[in-house]
């Protein structure tokens, strides 16, 4: 059972926002924001500047496009949204689906927007995606959401000028874990959820994992002394002793095989966010699967939200995508 301390923290960090268009009240945890992280890091990194939402010239943007109207939970059924950024041209371009972080319970797609704009400016279609967080729906709802978004994008590729043979998924922090699992389960029917009548595939061609856990069973992640309000415990519906099969199933490393797509790992200076990465890399070497590893060696977990590291993050991502699609 949740202890009283957790209940108090959860209530203080959660506000209820009314989705007036649909009449559904869904709990929303607002504990993870750029402003909150900035307050934490500015003493040690006074030169850090939050990356801004500032649309560069020459880009088109489509905001809050509905990609699913069948996201179900105990709060009912509602719409899920995504944004599309692309160069103002008629050329078919590779696409990058972007999954935000926040411990599976907080954050929103807006946090990916500055990075999405930097990447679109470099010649890609970038798509920050909304998904259901743990206060609304536990695992595996978010996986179903993201795979649904991929299918929707492929079905609407002509509208947004997307080359469906060049689809990459990226994720930051918890989003990195989700992105890696989505890629590792390419073609696994059990992770598709409601296909909503779309005949397109949710298969992706590469994955970029930015400080996201690869395995919940790795020593850096599996800790039986965790508090019941730990983000992974809340998302997975219990700790490892209660839900061992779920902890294994939610680990990308468990599903990875010789058909794994190319992967870019971008790491911060905190090793705990890379749990399971070394084991997967050893297997990738055996299988001959292409990968890159880069480290932004600062004690800032969400380094991609701030300059000077945001531009470096975009550079690594674009360079990787050019490499695999050249």
* Helix and strand sequence: HEEHEEEEHEHHEHEHHHEHEEH
Quickly name the level 1 CATH class: Alpha Beta
Overall helicity:
25-40%
In whole angstroms, the N-to-C terminal distance is: 52 Å
Q: Looking at this structure, what is the CATH superfamily?
A: Alpha/Beta hydrolase fold, catalytic domain
Largest sheet: 8 strands, mixed
CATH architecture: 3-Layer(aba) Sandwich
Strand order of the largest sheet: 4-5-7-6-8-9-10-11
Radius of gyration: 19 Å
Count the helices. How many?
11
Overall number of structural domains:
1
What is the total tally of β strands? 12
Tell me the overall shape.
globular
- Report the sheet-strand fraction: 15-25%
Query: Which topology does CATH recognise?
Result: Rossmann fold
Which structural category fits the helices and strands? alpha/beta
Poorly predicted runs are: 1-23
Round the mean pLDDT to the nearest integer and report it: 91
Task: Give structural notes.
- The protein has eleven helices and twelve strands.
- It is α/β, with parallel strands linked by helices.
- The protein has a single domain, classed as Rossmann fold (3-Layer(aba) Sandwich).
- α3 crosses α11.
Secondary structure topology:
Layout: H1 4-13, E1 14-19, E2 24-29, H2 34-41, E3 49-50, E4 59-73, E5 76-87, E6 93-99, H3 113-121, E7 125-129, H4 141-155, H5 157-160, E8 162-172, H6 174-184, E9 206-210, H7 231-236, H8 244-249, H9 252-255, E10 263-267, H10 277-287, E11 291-295, E12 306-307, H11 309-325
Parallel strand pairs: 6-7, 6-8, 8-9, 9-10, 10-11
Antiparallel strand pairs: 1-2, 3-12, 4-5, 5-7
Helix pairs in contact: 3-11, 4-6
């Amino acid at each position: 059972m949740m202890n009283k301390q957790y209940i108090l923290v959860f209530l203080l960090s959660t506000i209820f926002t009314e989705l007036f268009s649909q009449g559904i009240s869904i709990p929303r945890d607002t504990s993870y924001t750029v402003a909150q992280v900035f307050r934490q890091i500015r003493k040690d990194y006074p030169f850090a500047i939050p990356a801004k939402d500032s649309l560069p010239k020459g880009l088109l943007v489509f905001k809050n496009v509905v990609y699913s109207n069948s996201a179900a939970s105990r709060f009912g059924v509602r719409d899920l949204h995504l944004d599309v950024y692309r160069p103002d041209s008629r050329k078919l371009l590779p696409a990058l689906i972007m999954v935000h972080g926040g411990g599976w319970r907080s954050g929103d797609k807006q946090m990916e927007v500055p990075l999405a704009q930097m990447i679109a400016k470099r010649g890609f279609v970038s798509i920050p995606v909304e998904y259901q967080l743990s206060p609304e729906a536990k695992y595996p709802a978010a996986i179903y959401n993201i795979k649904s978004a991929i299918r929707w994008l492929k079905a609407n590729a002509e509208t947004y000028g997307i080359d469906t043979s060049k689809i990459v998924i990226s994720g930051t922090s918890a989003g990195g874990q989700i992105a890696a699992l989505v890629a590792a389960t390419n073609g696994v029917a059990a992770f598709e959820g409601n296909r909503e009548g779309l005949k397109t595939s949710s298969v992706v061609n590469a994955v970029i994992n930015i400080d996201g856990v690869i395995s919940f069973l790795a020593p850096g992640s599996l800790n039986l002394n965790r508090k019941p309000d730990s983000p992974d415990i809340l998302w997975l519906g219990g700790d490892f002793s209660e839900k061992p099969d779920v902890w294994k199933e939610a680990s990308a490393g468990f599903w990875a095989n010789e058909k794994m797509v190319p992967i870019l790992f971008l790491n911060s200076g905190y090793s705990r966010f890379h749990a399971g990465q070394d084991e997967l890399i050893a297997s990738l070497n055996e299988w001959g699967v292409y990968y890159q590893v880069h480290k932004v060696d600062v004690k800032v977990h969400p380094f991609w939200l701030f300059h000077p590291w945001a531009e470096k993050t975009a550079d690594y991502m674009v360079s990787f995508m050019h490499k695999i699609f050249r």
